[in-house]
Write a structure and sequence with these properties.
The chain has helices spanning about 35-45, 55-65; strands at about 5-10, 15-20, 25-35, 50, 70-75. By secondary structure, the protein is an alpha/beta fold. The protein is globular.
Length: about 80
């Protein structure tokens, strides 16, 4: 069961990470602390990562792109709470 798409909800300390497979099954939905994010994504196969465009999203997009992931920033008006 390989994760193909990941959504990240950025926050101050704890990020919510939600991964789905190619057949739209939920693979995981877990909170990660700021220090756990990069080591966690380094262990995953490259995939599509979506996150809301905010002040820190550009930093996280650069870091995840260095790990080989494809990152797409979503304008805040299109993100559901």
């Amino acid at each position: 069961m390989q994760v193909t798409t990941i959504g990240i909800d950025l926050a101050k300390n704890i990020f919510q990470v939600h991964g789905i497979t190619e057949s739209d099954e939920v693979a995981f939905n877990r909170p990660l602390r700021r220090a756990q994010v990069l080591p966690y994504f380094a262990r995953l196969y490259t995939c599509l990562v979506g996150m809301e465009a905010c002040s820190t999203s550009h930093y996280w997009a650069r870091e995840l792109t260095r790990l080989g992931h494809e990152v797409r920033l979503i304008p805040p008006m299109y993100v559901k709470p």
